[in-house]
Write a structure and sequence with these properties.
single chain; alpha+beta; five-stranded mixed sheet; two-stranded antiparallel ribbon; 2 helices; elongated
Protein backbone atom coordinates (compact mmCIF):
# COMPACT_ATOMS: atom_id res chain seq x y z
CA UNK A 1 0.00 0.00 0.00
CA UNK A 2 1.06 3.51 -0.82
CA UNK A 3 0.89 6.31 1.75
CA UNK A 4 0.36 9.89 0.57
CA UNK A 5 -0.43 11.40 -2.82
CA UNK A 6 0.86 10.29 -6.14
CA UNK A 7 2.39 12.86 -8.43
CA UNK A 8 -0.68 12.75 -10.69
CA UNK A 9 -3.05 13.42 -7.79
CA UNK A 10 -0.89 16.30 -6.63
CA UNK A 11 -0.88 17.84 -10.14
CA UNK A 12 -4.69 17.58 -10.37
CA UNK A 13 -5.18 19.27 -7.01
CA UNK A 14 -2.63 21.97 -7.83
CA UNK A 15 -4.26 22.73 -11.18
CA UNK A 16 -7.71 22.91 -9.55
CA UNK A 17 -6.36 25.34 -6.95
CA UNK A 18 -4.81 27.47 -9.72
CA UNK A 19 -8.13 27.63 -11.58
CA UNK A 20 -9.99 28.62 -8.41
CA UNK A 21 -7.36 31.25 -7.57
CA UNK A 22 -7.65 32.70 -11.07
CA UNK A 23 -11.43 32.92 -10.77
CA UNK A 24 -11.14 34.49 -7.34
CA UNK A 25 -8.67 37.13 -8.55
CA UNK A 26 -10.90 37.94 -11.52
CA UNK A 27 -13.91 38.49 -9.24
CA UNK A 28 -11.78 40.45 -6.79
CA UNK A 29 -10.73 42.86 -9.57
CA UNK A 30 -14.40 43.24 -10.58
CA UNK A 31 -15.47 44.08 -7.02
CA UNK A 32 -12.57 46.51 -6.61
CA UNK A 33 -13.78 48.35 -9.71
CA UNK A 34 -17.36 48.38 -8.38
CA UNK A 35 -16.04 49.79 -5.08
CA UNK A 36 -14.12 52.53 -6.92
CA UNK A 37 -17.22 53.52 -8.89
CA UNK A 38 -19.28 53.57 -5.70
CA UNK A 39 -16.66 55.71 -3.95
CA UNK A 40 -16.71 58.18 -6.85
CA UNK A 41 -20.51 58.35 -6.76
CA UNK A 42 -20.50 58.91 -2.98
CA UNK A 43 -18.07 61.80 -3.46
CA UNK A 44 -20.33 63.32 -6.13
CA UNK A 45 -23.29 62.95 -3.77
CA UNK A 46 -21.32 64.75 -1.03
CA UNK A 47 -20.48 67.53 -3.50
CA UNK A 48 -24.15 67.94 -4.40
CA UNK A 49 -24.99 68.13 -0.70
CA UNK A 50 -22.25 70.71 -0.27
CA UNK A 51 -23.79 72.82 -3.02
CA UNK A 52 -27.20 72.63 -1.34
CA UNK A 53 -25.54 73.57 1.95
CA UNK A 54 -23.89 76.63 0.39
CA UNK A 55 -27.24 77.83 -0.97
CA UNK A 56 -29.03 77.12 2.34
CA UNK A 57 -26.30 78.95 4.28
CA UNK A 58 -26.83 82.07 2.18
CA UNK A 59 -30.61 81.89 2.62
CA UNK A 60 -30.34 81.42 6.38
CA UNK A 61 -28.01 84.42 6.61
CA UNK A 62 -30.52 86.50 4.67
CA UNK A 63 -28.12 86.90 1.76
CA UNK A 64 -28.91 86.66 -1.91
CA UNK A 65 -27.50 83.46 -3.40
CA UNK A 66 -24.62 84.31 -5.71
CA UNK A 67 -25.26 81.71 -8.39
CA UNK A 68 -22.53 83.07 -10.63
CA UNK A 69 -19.93 82.62 -7.86
CA UNK A 70 -21.11 79.07 -7.21
CA UNK A 71 -20.83 78.27 -10.93
CA UNK A 72 -17.21 79.53 -11.02
CA UNK A 73 -16.11 77.95 -7.75
CA UNK A 74 -14.27 74.66 -7.32
CA UNK A 75 -16.89 72.22 -5.94
CA UNK A 76 -14.27 70.60 -3.71
CA UNK A 77 -14.27 73.82 -1.67
CA UNK A 78 -17.78 72.99 -0.49
CA UNK A 79 -16.57 69.92 1.41
CA UNK A 80 -15.38 70.06 5.00
CA UNK A 81 -12.57 67.66 4.06
CA UNK A 82 -11.40 67.01 0.55
CA UNK A 83 -11.02 63.37 -0.50
CA UNK A 84 -7.48 61.98 -0.06
CA UNK A 85 -7.26 61.38 -3.82
CA UNK A 86 -7.99 65.04 -4.69
CA UNK A 87 -4.90 66.42 -6.48
CA UNK A 88 -5.80 70.12 -6.63
CA UNK A 89 -6.45 72.73 -9.32
CA UNK A 90 -4.66 72.68 -12.67
CA UNK A 91 -4.53 75.19 -15.50
CA UNK A 92 -3.53 72.70 -18.17
CA UNK A 93 -4.23 69.10 -19.04
CA UNK A 94 -3.48 66.97 -16.00
CA UNK A 95 -2.51 63.92 -18.04
CA UNK A 96 0.43 63.14 -15.75
CA UNK A 97 -1.79 62.70 -12.70
CA UNK A 98 -2.18 59.32 -11.10
CA UNK A 99 -5.31 57.46 -12.00
CA UNK A 100 -7.96 57.13 -9.34
CA UNK A 101 -7.68 60.87 -8.63
CA UNK A 102 -9.83 63.99 -8.70
CA UNK A 103 -8.66 67.36 -10.00
CA UNK A 104 -10.24 70.68 -10.90
CA UNK A 105 -9.64 71.94 -14.44
CA UNK A 106 -9.64 75.72 -13.87
CA UNK A 107 -9.86 76.95 -17.49
CA UNK A 108 -12.89 74.74 -18.23
CA UNK A 109 -14.34 75.01 -14.69
CA UNK A 110 -14.72 71.24 -14.57
CA UNK A 111 -14.17 68.75 -11.80
CA UNK A 112 -12.59 65.63 -13.29
CA UNK A 113 -12.27 62.08 -11.98
CA UNK A 114 -9.73 59.71 -13.55
CA UNK A 115 -10.79 56.09 -12.91
CA UNK A 116 -8.00 53.78 -11.83
CA UNK A 117 -9.71 50.51 -12.68
CA UNK A 118 -11.35 50.93 -16.06
CA UNK A 119 -12.00 47.39 -17.27
CA UNK A 120 -15.72 48.14 -17.60
CA UNK A 121 -15.42 51.85 -18.42
CA UNK A 122 -16.24 53.26 -21.86
CA UNK A 123 -13.93 56.19 -22.77
CA UNK A 124 -15.49 59.59 -23.53
CA UNK A 125 -15.96 61.10 -26.99
CA UNK A 126 -12.28 62.12 -27.06
CA UNK A 127 -11.18 58.57 -26.21
CA UNK A 128 -10.06 59.51 -22.69
CA UNK A 129 -10.80 57.65 -19.49
CA UNK A 130 -12.31 60.40 -17.34
CA UNK A 131 -15.57 61.65 -15.89
CA UNK A 132 -16.18 65.40 -15.95
CA UNK A 133 -18.58 67.43 -13.80
CA UNK A 134 -19.53 71.10 -14.03
CA UNK A 135 -21.72 73.42 -12.00
CA UNK A 136 -24.43 74.64 -14.37
CA UNK A 137 -26.81 77.55 -14.03
CA UNK A 138 -30.42 76.58 -14.64
CA UNK A 139 -32.71 79.24 -16.06
CA UNK A 140 -35.81 80.40 -14.23
CA UNK A 141 -39.19 81.39 -15.60
CA UNK A 142 -37.85 84.31 -17.60
CA UNK A 143 -34.72 84.34 -19.74
CA UNK A 144 -32.85 86.59 -17.28
CA UNK A 145 -33.73 84.73 -14.09
CA UNK A 146 -31.50 82.05 -12.66
CA UNK A 147 -33.52 79.42 -10.83
CA UNK A 148 -30.70 77.43 -9.30
CA UNK A 149 -27.39 75.72 -9.93
CA UNK A 150 -26.63 72.01 -10.19
CA UNK A 151 -23.55 69.83 -10.33
CA UNK A 152 -24.02 67.88 -13.55
CA UNK A 153 -22.05 65.41 -15.63
CA UNK A 154 -20.55 67.15 -18.68
CA UNK A 155 -20.71 64.06 -20.86
CA UNK A 156 -22.66 60.94 -19.98
CA UNK A 157 -20.39 58.08 -19.06
CA UNK A 158 -20.81 54.32 -19.05
CA UNK A 159 -19.13 52.38 -16.28
CA UNK A 160 -20.62 48.87 -16.08
Amino acid sequence: RQAGFSLLEFMVVASMLAVFAGLLLNRLHYYQEVAEKTNMEVTVSALKSGLRYEMARALMAGEKIDYQRLARENPMNWLERKPPNYQGEFRSDAGALARGAWYFDTPNRELVYLPELDGHFVPDSEGRVRIRFRVELLAGKSSVDIATVQLKVVEAYSWF
